[in-house]
Specification:
This protein is α+β, with helices and mostly antiparallel strands. It is built from 9 helices and 13 strands. It has helices at about 5-65, 85-90, 100, 150-190, 200-225, 240-255, 275-290, 320-325, 345-355; strands at about 70-75, 80, 110, 115-120, 125-135, 140-145, 235, 260-265, 270, 295-305, 310-315, 355-360, 370-375. Helix 4 (about 150-190) packs antiparallel against helix 5 (about 200-225), helix 6 (about 240-255) runs parallel beside helix 7 and helix 7 runs antiparallel to helix 9. The protein is rod-shaped and about 170 Å long.
């Protein structure tokens, strides 16, 4: 026969039951609170996602409103965003890679600072680069603006300037032509004289031919000076250029007993054409040879520098006077007795048409030093 619980046991069971009931109530309340907190966090997460999505959409809209191709870089210089113009300009973009490697069509460095050349089916495009730092977490924004139209307007402006200059050249050109033409006609008129000896006839013929050749050179230089060509977008290998210069210049230097020292890397590619650069450097070497006494030396040196090359032609002649140094590249200015005054003007125009620069000064060797700076072609960014 089982015994009934005593008062103490009954009280203990009642306390246990009360504790269980209270614990169950606390657990239910905690569960309800946890559900409320989960619902609140889900709402906040959804709101944050919506805000982030709106911000990303707004950023994309802002990027597409910018007047150019935009690349958004992270702190490592890798592409994490781009606008529609960037994809249209550069093609497929490999996100997560450094921007110089991420573009399907990579721009090449131009001569000007923060300016690039991009080869497209429509031709060579000129791009200006603007860099902006991003706020936290950091990185950079690159804005490429197509300035091809501005470059073409600049080229057109230069062409118009040359046409205007032609009017000013007319009087000088007439004067330059008159003297050798009159001299040639005088010698040719004497060839009909009956009392002319064979030796005199040959002498008059030679002098007439000499004057006519001077006229030919003057006309050729004038045409080069006002030519309307554009060699942008073309390139020439320095190895081919050096070979052409050696063929044309070495016989002339040997004839005068002047050494020609050429130091040029053989595999650089210069903007322009072989014909154009052969005319430019040939003109500079011919001038250097003219002013350099026999037994001396002329130096042609090409050195690769940041974003381009520096060309130097240096002679051991008498150097430049103050007036010559300031007017050396003016049309029809010359210090040579047989010069037309157009050669160095042609050189300057060609170099500047390729976005380069040219300068002249007296050198430490006692002669004249002419320096040209131009950009390389095909140099891609890493």
């Amino acid at each position: 026969m089982s015994s009934r619980p005593g008062p103490e046991e009954f009280a203990a069971l009642r306390r246990a039951f009360d504790l269980f009931r209270r614990s169950s109530g606390d657990l239910a309340a905690s569960y309800d609170a946890l559900q409320d907190e989960a619902r609140r966090l889900n709402r906040e997460l959804a709101e944050a996602y919506q805000r982030l999505e709106a911000e990303l959409k707004q950023r994309e809209q802002l990027l597409n409103l910018l007047p150019g191709a935009v690349l958004v870089l992270d702190t490592n210089g890798c592409v994490e965003g781009a606008n529609d113009r960037a994809e249209a300009l550069f093609g497929a973009i490999a996100y997560g890679k450094p921007w110089g490697e991420a573009l399907a069509t990579r721009p090449a460095v131009a001569e000007e600072q923060d300016e690039f050349l991009l080869e497209t089916l429509a031709g060579i495009r000129h791009l200006a680069l603007t860099r902006s730092k991003r706020p936290a977490p950091g990185g950079e924004i690159l804005l490429f603006t197509d300035i091809t139209a501005a470059r073409e307007r600049e080229l057109e402006r230069r062409r118009r300037e040359r046409l205007t200059e032609m009017g000013r050249m007319a009087a000088n050109l007439a004067h330059q032509l008159r003297t050798p033409l009159a001299t040639a006609l005088l010698y040719l008129s004497q060839l009909d004289a009956e009392d002319l000896s064979p030796e005199q006839r040959i002498q008059y013929q030679s002098r007439a031919v000499e004057r006519l050749r001077r006229l030919e050179q003057l006309v050729r230089d004038t045409l080069r000076h006002v030519r309307d060509g554009d060699d942008r977008g073309r390139s020439v290998c320095t190895g081919d250029l050096v070979a052409a210069l050696r063929r044309a210049q070495l016989p002339l230097f040997r004839q005068k007993n002047v050494a020609l020292e050429i130091t040029v890397p053989p595999s650089l590619r210069l903007p322009g054409t072989l014909e154009g650069w052969e005319a430019v450097l040939g003109n500079l070497l011919a001038n250097a040879l003219y002013f350099t006494p026999g037994g001396r030396k002329v130096i042609l040196r090409v050195v690769a520098v940041s974003k381009g090359v520096e060309m130097t032609v240096e002679d051991e002649g008498t150097g430049l006077e103050v007036e010559a140094e300031s007017r050396l590249f003016e049309p029809f200015f010359t210090t040579r007795t047989d010069g037309t005054g157009l050669g160095l003007s042609i050189v300057r125009d060609y170099v500047e048409s390729l976005g380069g620069r040219i300068s002249a000064a007296n050198s430490s060797r006692g002669g004249c030093r002419i320096q040209i700076g131009v950009g390389l072609t095909g140099t891609e960014l890493a």
